[in-house]
Amino acid sequence: QITLKESGPTLVKPSQTLTLTCTISGFSLTTNGVGVGWIRQPPGKALEWLALIYWDDDKRYRPSLQTRLAIAKDTSKNQVVLTMTNMDPVDTAAYYCAHTGGSQSFFSFDYWGQGTLVTVSS
Amino acid sequence: QSVLTQPPTVSGAPGQRVTISCTGSSSDIGAGYPVHWYQKLPGTAPKLLIYGDSNRPSGVPDRFSGSKSGTSASLAITGLQAEDEADYYCQSCDGTLSGCVVFGGGTKLTVL
Question: pLDDT class for B99, splitting at 50, 70, 90?
Answer without folding.
Answer: confident
